[in-house]
Design goal:
18% strand; 303 residues; 6-stranded mixed β-sheet; 5-stranded mixed β-sheet; single chain
């Protein structure tokens, strides 16, 4: 069922005592999680995928009031299935969705920037080598098998090594819709009928406004909150392929050329199931004006 963010969705948010917002990596989650912490006036950063934990007692101790809005990244269907098994008219689930091909491309761009900033957890002193460039105007890092040549404005990554990272589903590349929207999840949603809304990630600014209106109106003048967004002053990133006569190309050009076959070539959706339902859901979600969709057992059956 299509939802108008200013009417139907507003009504759902107003009635809900507890709201759970879930999203895959590169689905606007960093912005939403930062908003949620500020809305709840908390400083604690929840562990990635904490809702998939078997022990959630932390929600019941330390404070009489449970935070009314909880948002988190999810990397599998486990947490969503668990939420679906406890339906209530007082609980609202909002899942932020991003088309998988688009999400993977965004994830590749993000990990390339991480590599150029060298801020992976694996960056132990013995794991990369720093060498001054003979010309003195650049420097070269070796991070595992990925060779990075960079200065303040440009960064060049080895294409073959970069492909290896993508194939591993590393960091933001992994944890997409094929691991979340599974047959098991759709079955759980049909059997339990929780109050659930799918929302396009491009609408999170409006979602923040809607949530703030009912839960933290003092934030309204500070919205939207945006985190991990690309900026024009970021390093220009190139991929170097020794087997390509063009040599180094901008990562955007590389993704434009390789994007349509990237997931297939690397078998990134090997764990996927019930993709037809997801595709039909996307047709409805992206086709409605506010890109918000209330999910019911009847709609899932139709998909």
């Amino acid at each position: 069922m299509y939802l108008n963010l200013n009417q139907g969705m507003d009504s759902l948010v107003a009635r809900a005592h507890q709201i759970f917002i879930t999203m895959p990596t590169k689905g606007g989650g960093s912005s939403m999680n930062t908003f949620t912490r500020r809305c709840n006036k908390e400083t604690k950063i929840r562990k990635f995928g904490f809702i998939e934990s078997v022990d959630l007692k932390e929600l019941l101790v330390g404070s009489l009031q449970v935070k009314s809005v909880i948002s988190l990244h999810v990397s599998s269907d486990t947490g969503l299935i668990c939420l679906a098994m406890y339906p209530s008219q007082k609980t609202l689930m909002i899942h932020i969705h991003c088309e998988e091909g688009e999400r993977v491309i965004s994830g590749v761009k993000m990990i390339s920037h991480h590599m150029c900033r060298m801020n992976y957890q694996e960056d132990a002193p013995l794991q990369y080598l720093y060498k001054p460039n003979p010309k003195g105007d650049c420097c070269q890092h070796v991070y595992n098998k990925t060779v990075i040549t960079k200065n303040e404005t440009h960064c060049i990554l080895d294409a073959e090594s970069m492909v290896d990272w993508i194939a591993k589903g590393h960091r933001e590349v992994g944890g997409g819709a094929h691991k979340l929207l599974t047959c098991k999840l759709y079955d759980a949603l049909q059997e339990n009928a929780p109050q659930l809304v799918f929302l396009n990630y491009k609408q999170i600014d409006k979602l923040q406004t809607l949530l703030a209106k009912h839960h933290c109106p003092e934030l309204l003048d500070e919205l939207p909150i945006k985190v991990n967004m690309a900026t024009d002053d970021e390093q220009k990133i190139y991929l170097y392929d020794s087997n390509d006569e063009k040599g180094a190309v901008r990562i955007e050009e590389w993704l434009d050329a390789k994007g349509p076959v990237l997931e297939w070539a690397l078998n990134l959706r090997s764990e996927a199931s019930c993709q037809a339902k997801t595709i039909h859901m996307e047709d409805e979600l992206f086709g409605c004006p506010d890109e918000a969709l209330k999910v019911t057992p009847e709609s899932i059956k139709k998909w």
